[in-house]
Each structure stands twice: as structure tokens, then as C-alpha cells.
Write a structure and sequence with these properties.
Blueprint lengths: L2 H11 L22 E2 L5 E5 L4 H6 L6 H16 L8 E5 L6 E3 L6 E3 L4 H18 L3 E4 L5
Parallel strand pairs: 2-3, 2-6
Antiparallel strand pairs: 1-3, 4-5
Helix pairs in contact: 1-4
The chain binds iron/sulfur cluster (SF4).
Length: 144
């Protein structure tokens, strides 16, 4: 089972996370961002948390720094003269955007995740890992 069927399997297996309330971040979220990419995948990119636009798109790692990374990956693939590009899947430590509420009603600010939040969301990451079976994991961002 490859391609779309596998991607559907990821979404189906992770469906319950769309309604997850295991940590307080569910209070602020608009959407859970499960992950995106090839299934199975050679490389598993794991970031920290997504931003506002990624939350609306439900796709992680779409900001400018990531566009630069994807371009660099493509350039490296060409330079290495590989017969095919490595496949990759991307997600974050957290399924929900990591924010704190500001005093202004309805306003939030992005922040680093707290360890209990990461611990609660860890099974989601493990589930993805077991489905995509990557050869390499690349962690992005600062250490929490
Ligand atoms: S961050 Fe993860 S554990 Fe917390 S509510 Fe969202 S999906 Fe659930």
C-alpha cells in the first residue's frame, strides 16, 4: 500500500487527535495539524509547533524558512545526482499551536511548548513514525 492509500491511512489512524483535549492547548486551537508528506517516507522532519497560517492551512512547515529548506533539499538532491528525490514527511511535536493567551480578549502569542504538552502529544508522533517508517529523522528548531 503506497501513496494516497497510505496517506489516507495516516489520516484515519490519527483522526481521533482532531478532537484531542489531552492538554490545555486545545482551548486555543482552530485546527489540529497532524502532518503532511509522503507515506512511507525516507526522511521524517519534526519541528516544534506550527504558526497561525499553518494552523489555518492544516499543513505544517509552510513558512519562508521552510521554503528555503525545501529548496535546499531539492538542490542537494540534484547536486548528489540521485536517481530520485528522497521522500519526506513533516510534522511537529505538537498537534496544536503552542500559544499563551494575552490580556487582550481573543489575542494569543506563540511560545515554546511545555514538556507536559509534548509528553501528552508524544503518542501521536509515535503513531506517525510507525506508519511512515522513516530511514532518518531530522529535528528542527530549538530544544525545548
Ligand atoms: S497539543 Fe497534542 S495533546 Fe495537546 S490537545 Fe493538541 S493534539 Fe492533544
Amino acid at each position: 500500500m503506497r501513496g494516497k492509500a497510505m496517506r489516507d491511512r495516516v489520516q484515519k489512524k490519527l483522526k481521533a487527535w482532531n478532537k484531542c483535549e489531552k492538554c490545555p492547548l486545545h482551548v486555543f486551537r482552530r485546527n489540529v495539524v497532524l502532518g503532511s508528506g509522503d507515506v512511507p517516507a525516507d526522511v521524517f522532519f519534526v519541528g516544534i509547533s506550527h504558526g497561525r497560517s499553518e494552523e489555518l492551512l492544516r499543513v505544517p512547515m509552510t513558512g519562508r524558512p521552510f521554503r528555503l529548506l525545501w529548496n535546499a533539499m531539492e538542490a542537494a538532491t540534484e547536486m548528489a545526482d540521485l536517481s530520485s528525490s528522497p521522500s519526506w514527511y513533516m510534522t511537529n511535536l505538537l498537534g496544536c499551536r503552542s500559544v499563551s493567551r494575552l490580556k487582550t480578549p481573543g489575542k494569543v502569542v506563540d511560545r515554546e511548548p511545555f514538556k507536559p504538552e509534548i509528553d501528552k502529544c508524544w503518542p501521536r508522533l509515535e503513531s506517525i513514525y510507525h506508519i511512515i517508517k522513516p530511514k532518518a529523522i531530522i529535528a528542527l528548531g530549538a530544544l525545548p
